Sequence to fold (132 residues):
Amino acid sequence: MSALTVYEAIGGETTMRRLVESFYDKVAADTLLRPLFPPTFDEVKERQFWFLTQLFGGPRLYTERRGQPMLRARHLPFPITTRHAQAWLRCMASAMADADIPTPAREAMLQRLTATAYHMVNTELEEEQRGI
Fold:
């Protein structure tokens, strides 16, 4: 008997889509994060779904459609600070709760996503240096 992937343990595609929908609802309401995203979320939602599905053991949707993730390179055009990473993680944690992801899976997912979020940090804006 094989071990379940995180993707399978949380309920697969249905749960992952709920997670992505809830996450972008939160991003839309976040004054720090919203300016980093395009006017509509349709494309980024789909790419996020592909990425999270693949990251957590589901089908390799992202690689099949977009090639290697190369996340840091893809995010370099956007000024991402530690505050952005923290806000992103808050939105994701809240979306995981909304999607009813069980605590053990949520903790595993957040641990992996925390490393990813902080890897995206590429600048220290003036207001962050002043501690605002």
